[in-house]
Amino acid sequence: MRALLTSHGSTGDIYPVIALGKAMKDAGHEVRFATVPFFQKEVERAGLEFIPVPPDWGQDRLSEAMRKLSRTRNPVRLLQQIYRQSIPFIGELMNRLEEAMEECDIVVSSYLFAHFRVLAQKKKKPFAVITFSHNVVPDPSYPPFPVAKLWLMPRFAQKLWNRLLWRASDRFILSALNRTMGKHLRKAGSPKIKYFLMNPGDIALVAVSKRLLQPEGFQKSSFQFTGYLRWQSEEDPELEKTLRKFTEGGKVTILTFGSVSFDDTESLMQRFLRNWPTGKKLIIQTGWAGLSPQEEREDILFVGKVSHDQLFSHGSVIIHHGGAGTTASALHAGVPQVIVPHFGDQFLWAKEIRRLKTGVRIRRKRWPERITPAVHHIEESPTLAGRAKELADILATENGPNKAVQVLEELLVEAKVD
User: Fold this and answer.
1) Secondary structure (3-state) at 360
2) pLDDT, tens digit, 9 for 90 and up, residues 275-305
């Protein structure tokens, strides 16, 4: 199999696709990954062929783009904003991807970029998508997130209503995306976007735990729950010495907001540090926001880019933004979580962590003042810690990358038969 993978966005959008590519390569397939140059090193570390596509942005531009997204709460407007950011280079991007598709047997893309399916259809290539959150999987047993379920209605009425909501949502999103991108796609020689929620690809890989997150009775064969696809930054032996010295062999609270960026980082950090108890050890990952010490404190350690698995192995509580990748890492680590969602599917993950009884959510407004009470609540609740370990044991039995490779191999066989 010659596979072309593509994804764009933050670390959480790229690393799971790298994990899939590595598994495909290990299974004997030829894999190329088309993405922005910022992630070239990680793609090549996995042994995948790297294909550069625009934009060639550095950390500052990527952080600014993330800041703009974090100001948008409405999910459809957020999606439009993601597409709008690609307008200046959409022609070059589509041309490079179309050229790369000439030498592949299958195309695998992040779910968000529905206009790539048009290219795959033009080249008559099987097209698969990966979604890192299960809230986009259409099923009559529940409505589109975040619409509330109609609990008081009979089940048959709920299913009928939910079907109507999914179809209406699909049409609404397609209309919004084509209003945003239609003329720019036409200028690039590409027709309008035709598919999103209801039929995103020949197969959709839902890269979350099947045992923990697949709806009961789910039967939609075009959506396959594979398990998590996880790729980690390289572990740092020298940093490990620093972490062990700081924690003194114990477990401490860890704060990371990943790729989320803030308009007022310095002010937020000042407020947070004023409210964090003196003498209580804390590790802060600087992340894309560039969180930095406002004063020297022996009880707080700042770290940069690091493997989640390496860092979270030292954690007693993980405070984070609710990104799909960070949530998955905390679940795999068996550590309870405090989630401060900012936008997009982060609100879904905050809801799921509460449902799974392995953490709590606090609201974005005044989070610097609310973190400490939330951490104290978790530390005083052995049930949450025990539940987190139970879920980690369940996740250890799943192999998302291998399952995803199997699904893609079957799709290619079916495509060749047809």
Assistant:
1) strand
2) 999 999 999 999 988 888 777 889 999 999 9
CA dihedral of residues 371, 373, 379, 384 (deg, nearest 10): -80
Q: Which residues lie below 8 Å from residue 61, measured CB to CB, with a gap of 6+?
A: 55
Asked if 21 and 33 touch (Cβ cutoff 8 Å), the reply is yes
Compute the distance between CA of residue 116 and CA of residue 94 in angstroms, rounded to an integer. Answer: 8
Distant-in-sequence, close-in-space partners of 87: CB < 8 Å, separation ≥ 6: 181, 184
According to DSSP, the residues that pair with 51 across neighbouring strands are 34
- Three-state SS at 149: coil
- Domains of the chain (ranges, CATH numbers): 2-227+399-417 (3.40.50.2000), 237-392 (3.40.50.2000)
Residue-by-residue DSSP string for 184-247: HHHHTT------SSS--SSEEEE-S-HHHHSPTT---TTEEE-------PPP-HHHHHHHHHHH
Q: 0.90 exceeded by the pTM? A: yes
Preceding peptide of 146 cis, ω within 30°: yes
User: Region 108-119: what's the mean pLDDT?
Assistant: 93
CA distance 345 to 136: 10
Residue 198 is encoded by which pair of tokens?
């209801």
**Rounded mean pLDDT, 63-70:** 88
Asked if pLDDT for residue 320 goes beyond 90, the answer is yes
Task: List, in order, residues 6 or more apart from 300 with CB less than 8 Å away.
Answer: 273, 276, 281, 282, 283, 284, 293
**pLDDT, average across residues 337-362:** 95
Query: How far apart are the C-alpha atoms of 83 and 220, rounded to whole Å?
Result: 28
Token pair listed for 296:
């020297």
Q: Which residues pair with 317 in a beta bridge?
A: 253
Start-to-end CA distance of the chain, whole Å, equals: 17
